[in-house]
Amino acid sequence: MFTKEQNYFILMLVCLVIVTMVLSTTIFVIEYGKVVHNNLLKEVEVKDQTIEEMGKEIEDLKEQIKTAHKVKSIMRKYAVKECVGETRQIIYEEIMASWNPVYVATVMAIESRFRVNAVSICGARGLMQIMPLHGDENSTFDIRKNIRFGAKYLKEQYDKFGSEALMIAGYNAGPGAVKKYKGVPPYQETLNYIILFNEIMNQANTAPMVA
Fold this sequence. Notes:
The chain is mostly helical.
């Protein structure tokens, strides 16, 4: 048998153990709750990011569809009847891979009406009417090389002058002429070119969607 003092001591010890266990359990629950809460927050953030990324992808896809529609509408209206089959598909793919497909398709419509073997009076060749480079005349008739070179040159004009009108003036009359006149050169050919460019762009922007 324990004395009264011993019983009291044992009771206090048991109470201390119980309190310690309760505190430990409480601390564990709190810490576990924090972990769960943080994980939930991370999941929400990830889902928000995923939704945001999906939203951007959807918007990008919409823009791609609009761009493809504009390019196809330009080709339907301006491409010569010889522009068919695999040739037409290659031209379309190269245009869509360029920095600004609608600009490139519009310039191509004006320059050659999508004739691969087009040759101007001054000797410019192919779809984008490129002058023969480095003595390699055949390269200007290569569909992919011609479009890529023309698209690159068009972008250089846009980057240099910063507007559609000056980009077209630089492509048609040359960047030197744009610098000389500090704007669009007063050449009738260039002025007509800009007017036609704007007309085709407007037609493409308002063309009804078709299958």
